[in-house]
Automatic annotation (TrEMBL):
Single GO MF descriptor: prephenate dehydrogenase (NADP+) activity
All copies of domain Prephenate/arogenate dehydrogenase, residue ranges: 103-366
GO biological process assignments: chorismate metabolic process; tyrosine biosynthetic process
Protein name (database record): T-protein
Localization, UniProt: Cytoplasm
PROSITE patterns, sorted: CHORISMATE_MUT_2, PDH_ADH
Assigned keywords, A-Z: Amino-acid biosynthesis, Aromatic amino acid biosynthesis, Cytoplasm, Isomerase, NAD, Oxidoreductase, Tyrosine biosynthesis
InterPro entries found in the cross-reference section: 6-PGluconate_DH-like_C_sf (IPR008927), Chor_mut/prephenate_DH_T (IPR008244), Chorismate_II_sf (IPR036263), CM_dom_sf (IPR036979), CM_II_prokaryot (IPR002701), CM_T (IPR011277), NAD(P)-bd_dom_sf (IPR036291), PDH_C (IPR046825)
Transmembrane segments: none
Source organism per UniProt: Shewanella piezotolerans (strain WP3 / JCM 13877)
One Pfam family hit: PDH_N
Keyword hit for Repressor: no
Length: 379
């Protein structure tokens, strides 16, 4: 570049830096306003996440962006990221306490990550929370005395045994709940062990979410719904979306959503290991969608093998789902080996028709994710 071009670029970049600084000040101002909103919501007991308000605001900003010749998706992307930050900030203000006369809460397994998250959320809502872990059972009677809610969050393979052997002498009006990722056996175990209110919960997220805004919590009713309705309302105030399901229906879905998906990722990672794949090289040649897929596989192996063994081995019925997947994979492989391109296209079209309107919907959603993945590249 010649000196004139260099000077022009430096001048323009300086102006851009100035605009960026203005943006920072505006962001700070917006976050301060959000903190005030959080305080008002806290006082009124309103949910942290208001989907109708969010949708209306995004639609209005998109229209305004269009009128200013700014890409509507750009302003939506910016606002969604801002809202995620806002939810994190609103959470720190605290939440209204729905049940003020509860007594204290006991989290069995409270030192675990998910137990720690629920302990934090309940504490932010004004409840007294006590943790009961493996070294505390000698003092368990004292810890349980006066408890209004006991939440079990321990490894799946010991959940039912622990409930049956350790939780049979709770106060009669105490709510007994669990956070296990399967529901039929734990709910049955709680109903058998405890005569009071029983509730099965499955948070469909990990402990690193930061905020429960827009997260899903599955509710499986056990006994005494009117006695624990306040807890469901409390979770809604945290911003979560409640999905009610029968335990059996939930567990059937988890065979596909969790067990088969995690097992498939495990095998994919195992295959990369067996093939001695050079991950650094794969990343250099990867498209955004493959990078995202590889990230999802890598994410699995960055976490506890015991956790995923619990999920995959939790239901014997998962073996059927995984075996069916293997059969379908083998049949598709036979089509490939036979060189029957027409058969492949025919099956592809059948599956596409089965997906229906979800296919283009998922295409739009994945396009946004892939653009974000591509934006994160540094080299």
């Amino acid at each position: 570049m010649n000196e004139k071009t260099t000077a022009e670029l430096e001048n323009l970049r300086g102006l851009i830096d100035g605009v960026d600084q203005q943006l920072l000040h505006l962001l700070r101002k917006r976050l301060d306003l959000v903190a005030q909103v959080g305080a008002v919501k806290h006082g009124a007991g309103l949910p942290i996440y208001a989907p109708q308000r969010e949708a209306k605001m995004l639609a209005k900003r998109r229209a305004e962006a269009q009128a200013m010749d700014v890409a509507p998706q750009l302003i939506e992307d910016i606002l969604r990221r801002l809202m995620r930050e806002s939810y994190l900030n609103e959470k720190d203000v605290g939440f209204k306490q729905v049940k003020t006369d509860l007594g204290h809460v006991v989290i069995v397994g409270g030192e675990g990550k998910l137990g720690g998250l629920f302990s934090q959320m309940l504490t932010l809502s004004g409840y007294e929370v006590k943790s009961l872990d493996k070294d505390d059972w000698l003092n368990s009677q004292t810890i349980f005395d006066g408890a209004g809610l006991v939440i079990v969050t321990v490894p799946i393979n010991i959940t039912c045994e622990l409930i049956a052997s350790k939780l049979t002498q709770l106060p009669s009006n105490c709510i007994l709940a669990d956070l296990t990722s399967i529901k039929t056996a734990p709910v049955e175990a709680m109903l058998a062990a405890h005569s009071g209110p029983v509730l099965g919960l499955h948070p469909m997220f990990g402990p690193d979410v930061g905020s429960l805004a827009k997260q899903v919590v599955v509710v499986c009713h056990g006994r005494g719904e009117s006695e624990y309705q306040w807890l469901i309302e409390q979770i809604k105030i945290w911003g979560a979306r409640i999905v009610e399901a029968e335990p059996e229906k939930h567990d059937k879905a988890m065979q596909l959503v969790q067990a088969m998906r995690h097992f498939s990722s495990f095998v994919y990672g195992l295959n990369l290991y067996k093939e001695e794949a050079d991950i650094e090289s794969l990343l250099q040649f990867s498209s955004p969608i493959y990078r995202l897929e590889l990230a999802m596989v890598g994410r699995l192996f960055a976490q506890s093998p015991e956790l995923y063994a619990d999920i995959i081995f939790a239901q014997e019925e998962s073996l059927v789902a995984i075996s069916d997947y293997l059969d379908n994979y083998s049949q598709a492989l036979q089509i490939l080996k036979s060189g029957n391109r027409e058969a492949f296209v025919k099956q592809f079209e059948e599956v596409a028709q089965w997906f229906g309107d979800f296919a283009p919907q998922f295409q739009r959603e994945s396009r946004a994710m892939l653009q974000s993945v591509n934006d994160m590249k540094t080299g």
